[in-house]
Fold this protein.
Amino acid sequence: MSSINIAKAKRLRSTPYTSRIEKQGVTAYSIYNHMLLPAGFKDSLEDSYYHLKEHVQIWDVAAERQVEISGDDSAKLVQLMTCRDLSKSKDGRCYYCPIIDDQGGLINDPVVLRLNQNKWWLSIADSDVILFAKGLAIGKNFNVKIVEPNVDIMAVQGPKSFSLMEKVFGKAITDLKFFGFDYFDFKGAKHLIARSGWSKQGGYEIYVQNTESGLKLYDYLFELGTEFNVKPGCPHLIERIESALLSYGNDFDLNDNPLECGFDKYVNLDSNVNFLGKEKLKEIKAKGISKKLMGVKINHDQINVSKAIEIRINSKRVGELRSGVYSPTFKQVIGIAMIDKPFFTVDTKVEITLNNETKTGVLCNIPFV
Ligand code: THG
């Protein structure tokens, strides 16, 4: 495989952790929110998969940028952007929220943090939510301030993350509930820490605002982490597909709506909150969706998905594969595919051409595990 360098520039922003992960052997970058997102380290994909499932990893996920919305109308604006009912939301809690446009098309799928009723962070996936938010605020004459604050998330993921974090922050950190957050002291500096992260192996996300302290914390986690076999890592393709953690721009985008993506539990059409696309989603729900995200298991031992790959039944196109990877657990290729009606039923047999050879597969529910 040829390796081509990324031409670094101000526009493709580095993170405060970049110089560290480069010393630690990062081998690939993706670009996410105009920022470097590590995509691989020296260890093979499979080695890092088993490591993440058994030990603890520190991830530079600063590219998960925050859109800060504050001011008197901030709650109204955040609610206008999401189909999830936030009327009963609480300070100190995170909410996974589809952001949709007036047609129900997905703009993003951030984790929304309610700092207080008048201050929110949208921890965004890869699209320019700040422009959408500003456009809406201007159009609606809302009294809000919208900025991208200097927040650089470092994630601590894996089953041993709890022991490692307890060593640094004490017992209180293990009392955090899933998707709760609070402020914890590290050598005199306060850090917002949530129990969350883009893996299903458990862990935390540290929203670093004090960069100097954050970098000391980064180094300290590696120092104390040796007894837990800590390693640098990054969002993991195999683990995230098995767990069905969906990726905006890969698995779904503006041309898909939340009902097609299985986000039903984050779509509240019966409450009286006001959000864009509500009537449209009601229509779609009444009519029924015309395509659906499904899992697919393919009888093959390798795949590299850099664009959508057609999925067929009896040579007729019925959908497309959007992400895929060889899973050492399932000992076959697993993937996430958008499948047209009426074919989106479990156990449906499909065909796919990989490297000029036709392979067979079967549709299934996600998550895989
Ligand atoms: N953490 C933070 N910001 C993020 C991500 C993150 N921004 C970009 C991207 N990831 C957004 N996408 C997701 C997708 C899934 C989850 C979080 C962010 C997630 N889902 C849980 C699940 O599916 O089990 C829980 C959702 C729930 O039920 O509330 O964690 O990873 N800061």
